[in-house]
Amino acid sequence: MATPRTYIFSAILAAAFYALNAPLSKWLLAEVPPTMMAALLYLGAGGGMALVRAGQRAVGRVPREAPLARADLPYTVGMVVLDIAAPIFLMIGLTRTTAANVSLLNNFEIVATALIALGLFGERISRRLWAAIVFVTVSSILLSVEDSSSFSFSLGSVFVLLACTCWGLENNCTRSIADKDPLQIVVVKGFGSGAGSLVIALMLGERLPAPGYALGALALGFVAYGLSIRFYIYAQRGLGAAKTSAYYALAPFLGAGLSLVLFRQRPQPYFWAALLLMAVGTWLASTDQ
């Protein structure tokens, strides 16, 4: 039987895989249109995990998991629809602000997930987690301000916050089916959301990129979305939506660090203030009992 440490390790592993998303997507977006990029990421997740399941069947080691049932359809549809919107918003945001900012802003998902878990499922939020929500929200505001003299907000940051809100809703949809086969959920999510995004991309006039960039996006999707989501869903079984999201909050810090190295950026002073606030909020959330 899985121990609490097993679930925590799964959440942290999910965070490490997802940390690759913002910096490497930012690099690929130089050659791949944003909506097409979102489609390829999720198709890579679905296709990659489908191959994993095929490999399990070939060696006769398919885990005994409960499959999705008809009663799960509303949550499954909600999950797919929200996963069409969220990555598109994120990719648009990445084209309009830095990858380091986007990485840290991803922590707003803690706020969205926890508040939605409270409103829809009555999941308890402690004083410590409320304090974490305040710190993360203030940090997100700092990262979103484009011009402090006029208090104008970065459009790119607004799109990232929209993505986080969609993922907060999606986390709670997934929470309701977290006891079902995680790999099957990722395959459905990947192909469903990827196909939906692909249709939107083609309707917008976007075209497939060169094969090398397309394969790069598919591979990134397999790791940053496929493997990450699979471990995230498994962690939700033992930790709940809000708690899993708190451990998953390591991903933005790892992503921000990789972004600063990859793009050789020199952040503004407000970035370091936001980083400190975000770190405090993340610590409060991850140590909440």
Quick summary:
The chain is an all-alpha fold. The protein has helices spanning 4-18, 21-28, 34-58, 73-94, 99-105, 108-121, 127-144, 155-175, 182-203, 211-239, 241-248, 250-263, 269-286; strands spanning 145-147, 152-153.
Helix content: over 70%
What is the arithmetic mean of pLDDT?
87
The ordered H/E elements are: HHHHHHHEEHHHHHH
- Give the strand content: under 5%
Strand order of the largest sheet: 1-2
Report how far apart the termini are: 22 Å
Q: How many individual helices?
A: 13
Sequence stretches where pLDDT stays below 50 over 5 or more residues: none
Radius of gyration: 18 Å
- Structural class, please? mainly alpha
Q: How is the main sheet built?
A: 2 strands, antiparallel
Count of strand segments: 2
